[in-house]
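Ticket reopened. Same input as before:
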Amino acid sequence: MISTPSVSSKLASRSRWVGLGLGTIALLICFIYSITLGARDIPLPIILTSFTGFDNSFDHLVVQTVRLPRSLMAMAVGAALAVSGAVMQGLTRNPLAETGILGIEAGGSLAVVLTLFIFGSASLSVYAGAAFLGATIAAVSVYALGTLGRGGATPLNLTVAGAAMTAFIASITTSILIVSQRTLDEIRFWLAGSLSGRDFDLFLQVLPFLLSGLLLALLLGRQITTMSLGEDIAKSLGQQTVWIKMLAGLSVVLLAGSSVAIAGPIGFVGLVVPHMVRFVIKTDYRWILPYSAVLGAILLLVSDIAARVLLKPQELPVGVMTAIVGAPVFVYLAKTKVKR
Amino acid sequence: MIKHTSGETCIPAKPQRVVTLHTSILGHVLALGIKPIGSTYIQAFMTNVAVPPYLKPHLHGIQIVGGYNPNLERMLRLKPDLIIGYNWEAQVYPLLAQIAPTILSQSHSDDVDWQECFQFVAQVLGRQDAAQQAWDRYHHKVAKLKMALENQYRNQTISLISFAGGAIFSEVKDSFPDRILKDVGLQRPTAQDVIAPANMLPISEEELDKADGDILFVGVYTTADRERLEELKQKPLWQKLRAVQQNQVYPIDYMTWRGFNLLAADAVIDDLYKYLVNPQERAGQGEKGG
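Engineering reply: fixed in the latest deploy. New output:
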């Protein structure tokens, strides 16, 4: 049998669709499992009837108002973080790019803490707005700072700029928290990144931003693939690199800002997931991005399950769980993949 | 010579300048008719935990010598002649003992009843008579409350939950407030009439219904815990509670209802008067169904 390039790419494309389908099924299984888990023993049939025939019983309320929102938030935030990480890694050709490492989440956090410090308790939309604004400012500053270094915005320059910016922002956040004990109490759990008791109304308010960030990123798949070959190549292929950078940056800020607003800073999901995806899909961001979304959702959902189960009935913040998984991967990548 | 958890210590027969290292011991000493010159824990260093109201009238002339940890420098300046604390200060005992004779008692954290600790403090101060009088006053007050309550709560359960450090706890069997409620003859919900370490049972939001009762007393520790409660109040799960539906939820002062001393017990009984004896007073809070 003679396999022409078009046939083999069709085959590859088909197997990629199958892979994505399998990933989605795995996500669905994790999702159902996470809904069955909790302090209260609720038999599966009752969980199911809470969807089909909600009767306002305590069991049904627990499923619908405690577990379902939490699982949905984990999936949405996980997908957002992973996709934003993938976009950044492709765009900056930096294997360590991630909203946490490049200071974008820290920027969003500082803005939320500042808002709380200045206005006391603010409304939900103000929180979200602050997170977006902080994330944008941090992203622009880190990129500008990274460009200043010798050789322009190389992976190393960007990572160093991100680390410097994170340290700088974190020191401001800390000093605000020291000055205002009240702010600390309100924010402490949030700063550890957590999905417990998160406000579902806030989630619903932020969701449109998160989804548009996701959509924008997925639409840019082809362009990001080209950009990941290097800016010069992209330009020579006729790409409007400035526009692509701006749009991709917008999607990163939308994704990072909304996930920070929903769950606080959760590290390493955006770093680890795209690398895991690239074991299967090497370079094509049209596939890397949706795979990252599914895998990111799975990873955060599983981390949240672990955070709930490991120390029952106490809970760990899920940000702690992702850090335990992510930190070793970071060290490995820094040693092997970063080009100077 | 007094034997205690960190050894044996020779103490003055009539100590004049007592420093206490916890509010419950401060309460014990005050209940025995002695005014300490200093204490820790009064204003915990988390500034948003208020001084418990029951201690406020007694605080004039009592210096704050630290938050959770004793401030040794300030204590040294006060020149105490007796320091009384719990054995969780055992690490700094050698330093404390250099400042003044120091007695460290077992505590409610060791599952030792606060009543025992009170007796111990009375023995240390040589005020066993005063302790007996304090107990008489307590029992008298309990008996009066019992009379006032008549039998109207015979078939009702009193639930106690507290929001502390980001978690929700049921105050279960043999906790400080549980003993008082039992003394008064009130019933506890079955799920709260159980043994748990330190008499506090952490409960999940998902199991709130187990903390349900006909009447629900709720305490909060920090402002963050208060916000957690306010958030929970908006949720449908909270609205499912019987006590909520019957409008029988009352706020209590966390530090008072976990006071572990007779002064605090006095204040708890006052709260019970306020919320249980005169249902008319409660009408002001929007009670429905009477």
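Chain A touches chain B at residues 38-40, 56, 58, 61-62, 65-67, 121, 181-182, 185-186, 188-189, 197, 199, 313-314 (CB under 8 Å). The first helix of chain A runs from residue 5 to 36. Please confirm and we'll close it.
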